[in-house]
Amino acid sequence: MSNETLGFYNRNAAAYAANEGAGNPRLFSFLRHCPPGGKVLELGTGAGVDAAAMIQAAFDLDATDGSSALAAIASERLGRTVRTMLFDQLDAKEAYDGVYACASLTHVPRSDLPRVIQRVHRALRHCGVAWANFKAGACEGTDALGRHYSYLSEQRLLDLWSEAAPWASIETEAWLGGAYDGKETRWLAVTAIR
Ligand SMILES: C[S@@+](CC[C@H](N)C(=O)[O-])C[C@H]1O[C@@H](n2cnc3c(N)ncnc32)[C@H](O)[C@@H]1O
To answer: Entry's Pfam families (predicted)?
Structure first.
């Protein structure tokens, strides 16, 4: 996976944290699929805005990020340790009711995505839910800030997740929103139930 992307987040962690907005409003539709107080893994927690909301909502959160600088900032915010973990270090088996990845798996190179999706599937308990969003587009590439993105079409997103693992159900949605680079962004999200 791209060290340049993590290099960006490590070098710019304080600025990224200072620019984080109010959090993802779609977090709560993900949480509605999880049992009350359920165990949730967050991949790419950033500065911990959505993590704080999940803890506030009494979920048993395991927050992680590949950037040690952002994990430190999020640990400070949450008053608990945020683990520094790369997506391809996820080795958990049937451990979580939910896996939440807001604007994070979109950085995984397309050729690595199936293996990461398989890790997410394996980490979930029976009937557990995964939620992840991606920037829309036709190809993969590097943005003006030096971050790698797997830009996907909605159909490609659906195909990638469906082909990578045997989900019981899988849905996608799309919307226009903002992003850290200040650009209007078409986002695609997948909700997949094991
Ligand atoms: C756009 S930020 C999103 C942060 C937060 N979820 C949010 O919505 O604001 C992407 C996050 O993914 C993390 N990340 C990028 N590549 C990663 C990797 N290979 N393994 C783990 N985390 C990674 C970054 O450090 C960063 O915190």
So the answer is: Methyltransf_25
Alpha-carbon distances of 133 from 44, 122, 157, rounded to whole Å: 12, 19, 10
Q: Which domains does the chain have, with CATH numbers?
A: 3-193 (3.40.50.150)
CB distance 66 to ligand 1 below 6 Å: yes
Amino acid, res. 5: T
Task: Give per-residue pLDDT as tens, 44-98.
Answer: 999 999 999 999 999 999 999 999 999 999 999 999 999 999 999 999 999 999 9
pLDDT in tens, 114-145: 999 999 999 999 999 999 999 999 999 999 99
- Please choose from 24, 41, 54, 65 the residue to mutate so as to test ligand 1's pocket, defined by most ligand atoms within 8 A of CB: 65
Query: Across the strands, what pairs with 134?
Result: 188
Whether residue 44 has its Cβ less than 6 Å from ligand 1: yes
Q: Are 10 and 174 in contact (CB under 8 A)?
A: no
Distance 101 CA to ligand 1 centre (A): 8
Contacts of 64 (CB under 8 A, 6+ apart): 41, 42, 43, 44, 45, 71, 82, 83, 84, 85
